[in-house]
Amino acid sequence: MIISLIGYMGSGKSHISKLLSQEMDLKLIDLDKEISLQYKMPVSEIFEKKGELFFRRAEREKLEEILAKEKNCVLSVGGGTPAYYNNMEIINQNTESVFLRTSVGTLANRLARQKSRRPIIAKINDDDLPEFIAKHLFERNHFYSRAKFTVDTDHKNPDEISSEIRALFNPR
After folding, report:
1. What span, in angstroms and rounded, lies between the C-alpha atoms of 85 and 116?
2. Residue 172 pLDDT more than 60?
3. pTM of the shown model
4. Is 51 annotated among the ligand-binding residues?
5. Is 80 annotated as a binding residue?
6. How far is CA 84 from CA 64, 105, 143, in A?
């Protein structure tokens, strides 16, 4: 079984996928990291040097490659991945998709502390961050909401979120 985590940046995809892979003894695959390894540069640099269209094509190819060869893993995809091509459709056809739903307020609080690691928001004023996030979520929630499962992450710690996801697949 492939469990895929989707959601906006700051929703906890990377952190929760690490916990899940350890707790369920599954291989961990981070789509953005795989693309970075292939092109030998961070995603932000790929965007900067080659453009978003190039990145989205590379992302789609890497997603297809992973889904064709992996059978048991936790897959963390980029925040924008579900919104391009028919990525959400192939994610749902090949994985147990889980949307980590997080409120604008929670995302803004988390991301304000992570700006140095997030080039897309690095120059956005903290006061403008909620509006920026809300606009993106408005565009992307249509895709995110198509996940097979939704787990709300507000007011929960990573262990609680991971436990809730594990319970979806190992009901007791």
Report:
1. 29
2. no
3. 0.94
4. no
5. no
6. 13, 25, 9
